[in-house]
Specification:
single chain, mainly beta, 4-stranded antiparallel β-sheet, 46% strand
């Protein structure tokens, strides 16, 4: 089991009770670890408050980091697709890393670089983003098309927080300004609440 904390990355073996921690001393870009996702093979991808790192089981490689404290590249959300491409989002970016190069979809610039708080991939391959001010954003990487769904379309609010995809192809998204919405293509259903859930898991 891999656990991201404010004190680095932890690996826990529930069978033996063995614990091991990794910090900036081991190569992490920052000790505040946010999402952790499994890549191809034994690779683990680690997001942090200042960048992205790859862990191959032996060594941590820092692959993305800000140039200075003022230009930290926080990674708040992450997804790894079937080709091993890492998609990541944070306070000012949504991009991808293919193992060699980074790229940022030009279409996202039309939304003014919204904050991306969460990511979930539905079974049809669409990558869904929980964003600030733009609600739920779907990205079809095959065609480079973005779809924005907000409170005008039935979403409970426009400030997305946590997001999860279920086995039926539905997207669940919480919003800080409205509550919880279950979204199935064309049919959002919402539950009102004073605040959004901080995290969800399926």
């Amino acid at each position: 089991i891999w656990i991201g904390t404010n004190d680095g990355l932890w690996r826990y073996n529930p069978k033996t009770g063995e614990k091991q921690s990794f910090t900036t001393a081991d190569g992490l870009p920052h000790n505040s670890v946010t999402p952790v996702r499994r890549g191809l093979g034994d690779t683990m991808w680690v997001g942090s408050y200042d960048g992205l790192a790859q862990f191959d089981g032996t060594r941590i490689t820092n692959v993305l980091q800000g140039k200075s404290r003022r230009e930290q590249l926080a990674v708040w959300a992450m997804d790894v697709d079937t080709k091993g491409i890492v998609w990541f989002g944070g306070p000012a970016q949504f991009g991808r890393f293919d193992g060699k190069e980074y790229s940022w979809p030009d279409q996202m610039l039309a939304l003014g670089k919204p904050r991306v708080w969460g990511m979930a991939r539905s079974r049809d391959g669409i990558l869904w983003l929980a964003t600030e001010n733009h609600g739920l954003v779907g990205y079809d990487q095959r065609w480079g098309i973005f779809t924005v769904i907000d409170n005008r379309d039935g979403l409970a609010g426009k400030n997305g927080n946590a997001i999860e995809a279920d086995s039926q192809g539905q997207i669940w998204i919480s919003t800080r300004d409205g509550g919880l919405t279950r979204y199935r293509r064309g049919t959002p259903r919402r539950w009102r609440g004073s605040t959004g859930w901080a995290s969800m898991s399926g």
